[in-house]
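User
New here, explain this?
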Amino acid sequence: MDDSHPRSVPPGLEPLPGLLHPPDGVLDDRGTAAEADLPALQEIAGRAGVAYRPGPGALIARTVRGAPAGWLAGVYDSAYTGPGAPCAPPHAYIRAVVVDPGARRLGFGTRLLSTFVARAHRLGVRWAFAAVDEGPGVQGRAAWFAERGWAPVADPGEGWPVMGRWTTPRP
């Protein structure tokens, strides 16, 4: 999942320009998934070996040809109840970040993550968190978040690694 050393880009999988700090709607014309998008996003989840399935409202990253390359499911009105939350709710919560295996290492996941954090900030949410799915590859998933500015949350009672970050520079 490391985007720092991009591989050669197959035709049609180039990320859309300007996605690092995109305005609403750049990832997708609607910005989020509609019911009609769900079969394609579920296929991506299947190819990626992810059990979680997206619902309407997931952020979508598309290729220059318009095909879905990945998605992020999350909410902006959650509350992390563990002892490591650095501020009062609301907190933004990432449920899943999934990129099609054929489109990995091209920046789609990073762009989805930065878009989610930027939207949380615009909504007045100060802190975001994600519970990194345990199982094979958990260290790699936690490292991927850490490389993008997320830090482990101190919560000895949590079974899954929790990563968090401020949506703005730390107060």
Q: What stands out?
A: The first strand starts at residue 59 and ends at 62. Strands lie at 59-62, 68-78, 91-99, 127-131, 151-152, 162-166.
